[in-house]
Amino acid sequence: MLDYRLYKGRGSEYIVLLHGIGGNSNIFYKQLKPFLKKYNIVAINMPGHAGSPDIDSYEERISFDLIVKEILHTLDHLSIRKAHFVGISLGSIIVHHLLQTKPERVRSAVLGGAITRLNLFAKSLIKFAWLIREFIPFMWLYRILAWILMPRGNHKGSRRFFIQEAYKMKRKNFLAWYPLAGDVKTTYSKVRENSEDVPKLYISGAEDHMFVRELAEDLQGDESSELVILEHCGHVCNIEKADEFNQLSLEFMDKHEIKQANIS
Description:
single chain, alpha/beta
């Protein structure tokens, strides 16, 4: 089973937190206290991260199907049938795949630094990094990618945190995750039609130069989604603009709790 942390808050509903590649559930350290005022929290560590099983411990090849299956297995173990999901970066990709395959498990979704597809620069960068992977330590590769993704001075704190947490990850697990980048577009391709009844809030930084333009284009016309762009903010918006992120997320989840209660 995946490694997870269960936090009991003041409410009856649950928020499931899903982190990015190379990180772990610690990335949500600025969300715990405010979220727990109204909700319970399950912070899950993805396969190959923190205390979760290594990628090579699975009999099948790592895939988004496998990851979603493992997440749902963890929630079933905790008797959580439906929850709010908050995903950051890679976590948003996992939530997208969940929305395509098991939307009935999602009460609402908050997606920070969301990725719907890769632009030409991102594709080229990922391909180049894969070609040189055998010639440099994987942490050098991770640091380079982190600097490219979060280059500005105001990104320093989130960049440092991501690099610091990535040191806890094994090389084999990082490299096993890496090829999944090519499947990013497929995880979003049917989100709109398969989860039109699930409310979705996208929060991204205006300086998230690798992904925000494509995200805004892909969300046009999607009535089940809202997009908020935070000024002077990069990719990891839940750290860099934590107060704004927390307020927007809680207001969004609270609003849809009220709506669903009225419907029932």
